[in-house]
Amino acid sequence: MKQSKSDLSVASLRKELRTKIIGQNVLYYPVTSSTMDVAKQVVKEEAAEGTIVIADHQTAGRGRFGRTWWASSNSSILLSVVLHPRLEELRNLNMAATLAVVQSIEKVTDLKPVIKWPNDVLIEGKKVSGILIESEVHGERVSPTVMGIGLNVNLDPSSNPEIVKTATSLREVLGEEVSRLEVLRALLGSFEELYNALRGGESIAKLWRRQLETLGKQVSVKCGEQVWQGRAESVDDEGNLLLRCTDGRLLTVVAGEVTLQV
Ligand code: BTN
Fold first, then answer.
1. Which strands make up the sheet holding 120-123, listed edge to edge?
2. CA of 129, closest atom in ligand 1
3. Which of 135, 156, 214, 221 would bridge with 145, disulfide CB 3.0–4.6 Å?
4. Ligand 1 pocket mutation pick from 40, 59, 93, 149 by most atoms within 8 angstroms of CB
5. Are strands 52-58 and 26-32 parallel, antiparallel or unpaired?
6. In contact, 208 and 95? CB cutoff 8 Å
7. The whole model's pTM is what?
8. Short-list 101, 119, 121, 50, CA closest to 80
9. Contacts of 131 by beta carbon, 8 Å cutoff, 6+ apart
10. According to DSSP H, which parts of the chain are helical?
11. CA–CA gap between residue 76 and residue 61 (Å, rounded)
């Protein structure tokens, strides 16, 4: 498939962006190592909350558990957002991020994505988006946090054998190109609304639970070297998974700790 030119720029994004905090300060790179690295650097320089870093290409994109996050040039949304959450908000950030991804896809297309606990967004059983949250917590104090989102908009998964079986993109499912700019604007708008809800003390767990495809399924959960098997019974208000183990115990698995092997 032919890859189109970049449809992202600071000026194009600013036009019609209706957010008040998220994306008010934009750093755009045609190529960078990882938007996470750039965002962490600007955090050191005291970047304002809501500063976003976007790139058309990453040479060292990373995912959870030290994995690589790969996307061909101009094909995906590669985004990092600087946030200053309190501990309570940090605990719920993965819910806000995954929900924002789902809502943005629903706003721009007629697709119905689902969330795979805790941090993946899937379409037709394949991963279309992943979230990476990097933060440090000292007691109740949370350092400025970088939230990374990779969203495969026009990616052709068959161009990389390592992801061809597990990844998809909006273009692959729809059979036509989708505007990254439109999805990105919708994503920033949805995220701001959800983040504001968290800041106002509202719970978004109910909304999140509705989009979770994992519940009711037999799963195995890997945490370090340990593996638990059981039924994904529910999630609590902080997004932790309640796993009914095969021996009958109910285990609370903290979001972000594990990889789920459905
Ligand atoms: C995962 O599912 O493992 C999380 C993937 C997160 C990828 C995004 S792409 C933008 C940002 N920059 C990175 O290097 N990683 C995140």
1. 26-32, 52-58, 76-83, 145-152, 126-134, 120-123, 114-116
2. 2
3. 135
4. 149
5. parallel
6. yes
7. 0.94
8. 50
9. 94, 97, 98, 101, 119, 120, 147, 148, 149
10. 10-14, 35-44, 87-91, 93-108, 170-174, 180-199, 205-211
11. 12
Using one digit for the tens of pLDDT, what is the confidence trace for 130-181? 999 999 999 889 999 999 999 999 999 999 999 999 999 999 999 999 999 9
Look up residue 31 and give its DSSP letter. E
Give the type of residue at 249.
Answer: R
The larger pLDDT score, comparing residue 248 to residue 3, is at 248
Amino acid at 217: K
Ligand 1 centroid to residue 245 C-alpha, Å: 31
**Any idea how long the chain is?**
262
Alpha carbons 143 and 22: distance in angstroms, whole number:
18
Q: How far apart are CA 228 and CA 98, in angstroms?
A: 24
Per-residue confidence (pLDDT) for residue 1, from 0 to 100: 44
Amino acid occupying residue 165: K
Ligand 1 atom showing the smallest separation from residue 55 Cα:
10
Residue with tokens 């609590």: 236
- Tell me the backbone φ, ψ of residue 222, rounded to 5 degrees: -105, 125
Q: Which residue has the higher pLDDT, 246 or 114?
A: 114
Closest ligand 1 atom to Cα of 130: 2
**Ligand 1: which residue has its CA nearest to atom 7?**
150
